[in-house]
Write a structure and sequence with these properties.
11 strands, Rossmann fold, 5-stranded parallel β-sheet, alpha/beta, ABC transporter substrate-binding protein, Vit_B12_bind_prot, ABC_Transporter_SBP, globular, 2 domains
């Protein structure tokens, strides 16, 4: 079969039984779908909270020797989260790697259904069915403009095309970048603060914004701290996000 980037991946005839995940979102998705097959994950894979598998370092510097020692049927990665160099090296070692490419909610749902059900051969997870039901339908007209910083010094915000921007758009929230283009552009905070922006969402990842670190930069705009997992992760978090973010 071919992954989201069109690369041919040779899989075992039987359902996939040993998986190493290099993506926190996909680690959670696998753990909620077929927990017994997950044998390795990165240090950044924090969900579920009781996850007890071998750690293979980070998303950008995976330990290839540790991964090989786990004898995975499949390693799962993501175009944005992981480095192409690491994927190439794992494949050169004879390890099958499936790479996902996700920039929208529908794309995330379709990609996960293909990976979990068609590729891995597991039963259809209930959380996926529920997420598909909740997020079905057209994108509504934006009812508010939001800024979503992901870093400071320098300030960077969510732009387009990104999964986060699409998820928020489906909640009626349009991301604002003060006219700067790109997926995660650098911005001048003063140009955004109070310039027709309704709300600044401050997530706790990748930069950990807190009550004392972030809101003070936006004196003319309302701010709200938000769980970064709900706006950047795909998988079971999509079910929680629909309810948790409905009042934004």
């Amino acid at each position: 079969m071919r992954d989201d980037l069109g690369h041919e991946v040779v899989l075992p005839d039987d359902p996939v039984c040993r998986v190493v995940s290099l993506v926190p979102s996909l680690t959670e998705a696998v753990a909620e779908t077929a927990p017994e097959v997950l044998v390795g994950a990165t240090d950044w894979c924090t969900r579920p909270a009781d996850l007890d598998v071998t750690r293979v370092r980070g998303t950008k510097n995976p330990d290839r020797s540790a991964i090989a020692a786990l004898r995975p049927d499949l390693v799962i990665a993501n175009k944005e989260e992981n480095r192409e160099l690491d994927v190439r090296r794992l494949r050169a070692d004879g390890i099958p790697v499936w790479v996902t490419d996700i920039e929208t909610v529908p794309q995330a749902l379709a990609s996960m259904r293909r990976l979990l059900v068609e590729v891995a051969g597991w039963d259809e997870p209930r959380w996926l069915v529920e997420a598909e039901r909740l997020w079905a339908g057209p994108v509504p007209e934006a009812r508010a403009r939001v800024v979503v910083p992901i870093w400071r010094d320098p300030w960077m915000v969510v732009g387009r095309p990104t999964f986060t921007a699409d998820l928020l758009a489906r909640l009626g929230l349009g991301v604002d970048t003060a006219g700067e283009e790109g997926r995660y552009p650098h911005v001048d905070v003063e140009r955004l603060d109070g310039a027709g922006v309704d709300l600044v969402l401050l997530p706790d990842e990748p930069y950990v914004f807190t009550e004392g670190d972030g809101p003070e930069a936006f004196s003319r705009t309302a701010t709200r701290l938000v769980n970064g997992r709900l706006i950047t992760w795909y998988g079971p978090s999509l079910v929680e996000a629909w309810t948790a973010l409905a009042d934004l």
